[in-house]
Write a structure and sequence with these properties.
Number of helices: 2
Radius of gyration: 29 Å
Helix content: over 70%
Largest sheet: none
Order of helices and strands: HH
Shape: rod-shaped
Length: 116
């Protein structure tokens, strides 16, 4: 492969998808935090079993929270990359436009030569 093409719209679409997944992970983390804080989630007679699940539930909630944070970070990085590609693209376009203008101006200075 000699090179690659970056389509800014596709990068931003990927960022939007990552953000949607991050939002879902946020909801899951909130639900996990709520569930692990309940003392009577499993009923009065099953409270001892519920207490045994508090630590694993908390670890799961922590893992989901970290995943959500990573997805938010990915979204930010993708958006920043898209903005940087856009800025470079605009600079290159400006340089090429200036070059075309200079070439057009130089072409106008070439004298006409009559010939046979």
């Amino acid at each position: 492969m000699d090179g690659f093409t970056v389509t800014i719209g596709e990068v931003l679409a990927h960022a939007a998808t990552a953000e949607a997944q991050a939002a879902r992970a946020d909801v899951a983390a909130e639900a996990g935090a709520h569930l692990s804080s309940l003392d009577d989630a499993y009923g009065l007679f099953c409270q001892p079993f519920g207490q045994m699940l508090v630590e694993p539930q908390q670890r799961g909630t922590d893992a989901i929270t970290k995943a959500a944070a990573a997805l938010h970070g990915l979204t930010e990085s993708l958006e920043q990359a898209a903005a940087e590609y856009q800025a470079v693209d605009e600079k290159v376009t400006a340089v090429l436009d200036a070059l075309v203008a200079q070439l057009d101006a130089a072409a106008g200075m070439i004298p006409s030569v009559g010939g046979n």
